[in-house]
Amino acid sequence: MSVRYPRPLRPGDRIGVTSPSSGVPEELRERLAAAVRDVEARGYEVVTGRCMDGGGHISAPAAERAAELTAMLTDPGIRAVVPPWGGETAIDLLPLLDWDRLRTAEPTWVVGYSDMSTVMTPLTLLTGAATVHGNNLMDTPYRVPQGLVSWLDIVAAPPGHRFTQFPPERHRATGYDDYAEHPDVRTLTLDTPGRWTRLDGDGDVDVEGRLIGGCTEMLSNLTGTPYLDTSSFARAHAPEGLLVYVEAGGHDALTICRNLHGMRLAGFFDTANAVLVGRTSAPDTSSLTQHQAVLDALGPLNVPIVADVECGHVPPYLPLVNGARGRVVHTSTRSELTQTLD
């Protein structure tokens, strides 16, 4: 079976905006409006749903969020769904989504990261439809650093498209942009140099496989459930094996270590040819760093482990397509990730 890729977006297509997890508070609505204008400038029509309230940790009751997301994903007139950002408890949607409709509907691009992993990774695993783990709607106005691409470029790419991203070797290590004070901010502050890091040993890495993964704090809660069965996905779509990526949003190193051990014991990494680990600003502990936590949990896999990849909560953002064929190359002088939409 082949991975199902949504039809490339064309000018005039509609993009749905809904918040499967956290909504947008009033003081940040100007940033949301700026992001919508950027999407519209590409020639798309933006349709904003009702589940957008930012007064609490969820945008609406679970049944309403699930119904709105299902409706957008099965509406042939909506070609992509992009939330403003993630949140905390999108997990409550999973038993409420209409999975039978989602499996049979023409696939729709879904874009996001953080808590959106809770929805997007199961969507790819259970329906075979590709999804984009990348910068979300509120990040969209930022200018894309050289070497990287925007989600807007990916969802418009034709079938079979191949693209290679190179890390800019700079990232943001301090502070954040205040969207309330500066809703139109477009320049990413990349204040610290940094390269990819091989954790499991020395030597060059050149590995291929289909990409799948997401945020560790979110996916670890799905271990042992039908929503995180990478082995079945690999048998159906990736007999050559997977490139699995994970990233820590904010939990300390001991928590991440436990989470990754649990995911490994549950089989999440069983068919991994290599593991990519996102750069994180999550704290170390007195006895364990974030790098040590990953190696402690995933070292027994005996596959290459490449850390400090731009696929997490630390800007800039290197979008990864769940389901795409990937090739990661990492040497002392070169780091790159090539993805092919086939």
What descriptors fit this protein?
342 residues, single chain, alpha/beta, 16 strands, 9 helices, globular
Report on this structure.
It is built from nine helices and 16 strands. The protein has helices at residues 29-41, 62-74, 99-104, 117-127, 151-154, 216-219, 230-237, 253-265, 290-298; strands at residues 14-17, 45-48, 78-81, 109-112, 131-133, 162-165, 170-171, 192-193, 197-198, 205-215, 242-247, 272-278, 305-309, 320-322, 325-330, 335-340. By secondary structure, the protein is an alpha/beta fold. The N and C termini lie close together (11 Å). Helix 8 packs parallel to helix 9 (290-298). The chain is globular, with a radius of gyration of 19 Å. The strands form three sheets. An eight-stranded mixed beta sheet has the order 6-16-15-10-11-12-13-9.
The structure class reads alpha/beta
Main sheet makeup: 8 strands, mixed
Strand order of the largest sheet: 6-16-15-10-11-12-13-9
How much of the polypeptide forms β-strand, as a percent range?
15-25%
Output the radius of gyration.
19 Å
Overall shape: globular
Mean pLDDT: 97
The proportion of residues forming helix, as a percent range, comes to 10-25%
H-E string: EHEHEHEHEHEEEEEHHEHEHEEEE
Query: How many angstroms does the end-to-end distance come to?
Result: 11 Å
Low-confidence stretches: none
Got a strand count? Answer: 16
Q: Number of helix segments?
A: 9
List the SSEs and their pairings.
Elements: E1 14-17, H1 29-41, E2 45-48, H2 62-74, E3 78-81, H3 99-104, E4 109-112, H4 117-127, E5 131-133, H5 151-154, E6 162-165, E7 170-171, E8 192-193, E9 197-198, E10 205-215, H6 216-219, H7 230-237, E11 242-247, H8 253-265, E12 272-278, H9 290-298, E13 305-309, E14 320-322, E15 325-330, E16 335-340
Parallel strand pairs: 1-2, 1-3, 3-4, 4-5, 10-11, 11-12, 12-13
Antiparallel strand pairs: 5-14, 6-16, 7-8, 9-13, 10-15, 15-16
